[in-house]
Amino acid sequence: MSSPCDPQHAPAGDVGAALMMIDSRLKEIHDGKTGVDTEQKALTDQYIASLDTKGVNDVLDGVCTLVYMFMQWLRAAHEDHDKDVIEYVVPNVVGTMRMMPKSVRPEAIPTMAGLLVAAGTGLSPSLWRQQYGDWTEAELTPLEATALLLAEHINRITDDPNFATRMVTQALSSADED
What are the backbone angles phi and psi of residue 26, rounded to the nearest 5°? Predict the structure, then answer.
């Protein structure tokens, strides 16, 4: 029986914009030794500020699509080693978020953990979250942090600082070809 949270029923959203945000933040973190690329940050911030409500919702759906894609990749990688993605990835991400109290308020962590479990079990993060109402302002940064931490986790596993971004870019390219 199909779940109402099945990914086939979910909007993909603006995955390109979501990926641009996450990739920009990853680069910001890794290039932090030399300083933040203020031009890139300003462009990203300007783009986000220019969005209307529909555009913002599309980016939110895009970030949820990234969370889903990252968790599905991690699930396959962990299953190859007879490990459970929920057991190994969720505590890692939640523990990291707990160390980020300025960006991730403690009350947002259970929602992000639920989002990860939903994605890790094959449910759409967007549709899973939607059943609890609209996104709150306090959840936006934690959602971005969740996608960022998953991408960074994938990049560390693969020992490739661009693997997660490249994986999504290739998936988008192949979807455009179909």
Answer: -60, -45
Write out the two tokens for 107: 């009350």
pLDDT digits (tens, 9 = 90+) for 133-157: 989 989 999 999 999 999 999 999 9
Domain extent listing, the chain = 13-177
To the nearest 10°, report the CA torsion of 51, 52, 57, 61.
-30
Residue-wise pLDDT tens digits, 113-137: 999 999 999 999 999 999 999 899 8
pLDDT of residue 33: 52
Q: What does the block give as tokens for 159?
A: 């020992």
Three-state SS sequence of the chain: CCCCCCHHHCCCCCHHHHHHHHHHHHHHHHCHHHCCCHHHHHHHHHHHHCCCHHHHHHHHHHHHHHHHHHHHHHHHHHHCCCCCHHHHHHHHHHHHHHCCCCCCCHHHHHHHHHHHHHHHCCCCHHHHHHCCCCCCHHHHHHHHHHHHHHHHHHHHHHCCCCHHHHHHHHHHHHHHHC
Q: What is the pLDDT of residues 85-124, one digit of tens each?
A: 999 999 999 999 999 999 899 999 999 999 999 999 999 9
Considering only CA atoms, which of 54, 53, 52, 68 is closest in space to residue 19?
68
